[in-house]
Specification:
The strands form two sheets. The chain has a two-stranded antiparallel sheet. Strands 2-3 form a two-stranded antiparallel sheet. The chain has a domain at 80-161. With 186 residues, the protein is mostly helical. It has helices at 6-74, 133-136, 142-149, 163-185; strands spanning 80-82, 114-115, 118-119, 159-161. Strand 2 (114-115) and strand 3 form a beta hairpin.
Length: 186
């Protein structure tokens, strides 16, 4: 006849409870590790998305600026010109002299087109400073053109900046400031 030993049951129950507690702790630790890993993955994904968005925005802004600059450059007679009375101090196509052009294209500020021998209409050209084609095409004598187109810089001053270029430079500065403000707030 077997004897009933209650202390053995208590020991087995205690061991079972201890194992169960350990299993619960392991399960909780595993769940916490999984949650931490998921959070890290989400953070990494968010960082990658933010970096991609920043790169895309930078590329878009750069493309827009380049397109605007190209459009401005394609327009004739836009730029900072530096001309003297009888010769060009710059090799750019927006520079003209009294009787010669820097290239065979329409670089002459005259009512007429630029020929290989120079300005075909000297009287309408401003000899003191570079002017736009529209300003030089006002007509009249050389003195009249100087009065209308060169009055801001003087008939013999060195540099003339087209208003369109000044506006473009201001727009570029504004866009750069907006870009810096945007990325500093992210």
């Amino acid at each position: 006849m077997k004897h009933f030993c209650p202390w053995k049951l208590d020991t087995q129950l205690a061991l079972s409870l201890l194992l169960l507690h350990q299993l619960q702790q392991q399960t909780q630790q595993q769940q916490q590790q999984r949650q931490q890993q998921q959070q890290q993955r989400q953070q990494q994904l968010q960082q990658r998305l933010q970096q991609r968005l920043q790169q895309q925005l930078q590329q878009q802004l750069q493309q827009q600026l380049q397109q605007q600059l190209q459009q401005q450059q394609q327009q004739k007679h836009l730029g900072s010109c530096s001309c003297s009375r009888n010769s060009c101090t710059s090799s750019s196509s927006c520079c003209c002299s009294r009787n010669s052009c820097t290239s065979s294209s329409s670089c002459c500020y005259s009512r007429s087109s630029c020929s290989s021998s120079g300005c075909s209409d000297e009287a309408a050209a401003c000899f003191g400073t570079c002017v736009s084609l529209a300003a030089a095409g006002i007509g009249g004598s050389a003195a009249d053109v100087q009065e209308d187109a060169c009055k801001d810089e003087g008939p013999r001053s060195g540099v003339y900046v087209h208003p369109g270029v000044a506006q473009q430079q201001q727009l570029l500065q504004q866009q750069q400031q907006q870009q810096q403000l945007f990325f500093s707030n992210m």
